[in-house]
Amino acid sequence: MRWDRFFDDLEDQLASEWEAERAALDTEAERLRLSRVALHERLSLLTGRDAAAPVISIELSGDTTLRATVTGIGADWVALQPVEGRPGALVVPFAGIVGIGMPHHDLLRSARPAPPRSALTERMTFGFVLRDLVRRRAGVAVHLTTGRVLTGTIDRAGADHLDLALHDPGTPRHADAIAGHRIVPFSAVAWVRVEGSAPIL
Description:
Elements: H1 2-35, H2 39-44, E1 56-60, E2 64-73, E3 77-82, E4 90-93, E5 97-101, H3 104-110, H4 119-123, H5 126-136, E6 139-144, E7 149-157, E8 161-166, E9 180-185, E10 189-194
Antiparallel strand pairs: 1-2, 1-5, 2-3, 3-4, 4-10, 6-7, 6-10, 7-8, 8-9
């Protein structure tokens, strides 16, 4: 009888050690997985176009903090819809993001494994989305990393810069309304607000 109890105790001890070792391996595997997670993956799990989309607090270059929902993700940018303030979608290059605040349950949800990205998403760079704004002739407010804001219409978007025709917000791009032109490197852009309510892409 004592031997039975001894073997039962030994079996329980081995099972406990096995469970502890498996938990340690699972924890290490999870740490390894998390070490490979990119910002775009976390933001993609917060994307939504409905009322259930989580509201995040996003800190941007130029000392700006906005409350918004994530509506789209590109290769190196995120599309946001502000929940307060002026209407208009925002396009933010990842380099313009200083920090992101959200409730803890959304933070944990964003760390789950994300579905694989499509090849199209990988090709939709910040320049790609700006070229779409050129095609649409959309009025924009380009917020620079210095805190300055330039308003107008993007005439061209190159590989690493844009050409902006400066004019007052809300006015169409006509030759007599143009106050000047600027070449703006993408590295100087903190974020872009697009006039109107049309979604980005």
